[in-house]
Amino acid sequence: MYGIGSVRPSALASPHVLLLLPPLFWAGNAVAARAYAAEIPPHALSFWRWTLALALLLPAGLPRVAAAWPLVRAHWKLFAVEGALSVAAYNTLLYMALQSTTAINATLVSASLPIIVVLLSWVWLGQRVSLRQAAGVALSLSGVLAVVARGRPEVLLGLEFTSGDVLMIVATTGWAVYSLLLRRNPPGLDPVAFLTVQIAVGVALILPLYLWEAHGGARMSLDVGALAAIAYTAVFASLAAFLLWNRGVAAVGATVAGLYIYLIPAFTALMAIPLLGERFQWFHAVGTAMIFTGIGLATRNSFAVGRQKR
Prior knowledge:
Helix content: over 70%
Number of strands: 0
Distance between the termini: 12 Å
Structural class: mainly alpha
Order of helices and strands: HHHHHHHHHHHHHH
Number of domains: 1
Shape: globular
C-alpha cells in the first residue's frame, strides 16, 4: 500500500482504530460520488479530486521525486502505466459507474479484486490454481453475478446488465492488473515520490477527458455541497486515508491490515442506506456471503494483495 509516507504508528492511537478509518473514508468516496452524480460529472470529479490532492502533496512530494529521479527516469514507462490504471482509469470508471448504479453495488463488485488477481495470475503469470482456489473463484464470481443481476436470472440470460456494474467490473480488472504490476516496482522506491508521480500521470491523463466532457456541455455545480464533496475526496479519500493506512500497516502488517479492506462495502451500506435511500436487499446479502466465502477459499495463506485504494 502506498501513501503519503512511511510514518511510524502513533502511540496515542491503536493501529486497529487507525485501520478502521481508511475503509470508512473510501466508502465515503463512493457515497459522495453517488450523492452528487447529478451535480458533478464523473471526469470533473476525478480531475478536481486528484488535482487538489496533488497540490497538497507537492510540497513534500517534489523534493522526494528529485531525490529519486534516477529510479523514476529508469522506470518511467512502468510508473506511467501504473498511474494510468490506478489514478486515471479506476477512479474515473468508478465515478462513471456511480452515475447508473448504487454505491452498495459498486463497492460489492470491487470487493472481488482478490479473485480477479488470482485469475490474472493464472492466465498472465502462469501460476497454478489449486482446486480450492478454483472453487473460491467460482463461488466469488457467482456472488458478483448475483449482485450485478440483482437476483434476477433473466438479467443474466438476457445480458441486460446495468452499465455502471459493467464499468465497475472493468475498473476492478484494471486495478487487479495494477496490483500485479506493483510487484515490478524497484526496491528502495520512496513511496511519497511514487505517489506524486502516480497522481501527476493520472491528472495529465484525466485532463483531456475532463475538457472533452466540459466541451460536450457537462457542467459542474459550484454549490457548497459539490465543493465539499470534491474536498472530501481529495483530503480524506486520497491523502488522509493513505497516511492512516500506512501507519496501520506498519503496526500490524499487510496481511492483517488487508482484512480491513473488506469493511468498505459494509461502511458503504451503512452510509448509503440513510443518506442516499439505497436498500440493502436479499441479493446483496447472498452475493456478499458468496464473494467473501470465495475470497477466503481462494486467498487463504496468501491473503495480502499489494494495492493502493480509491
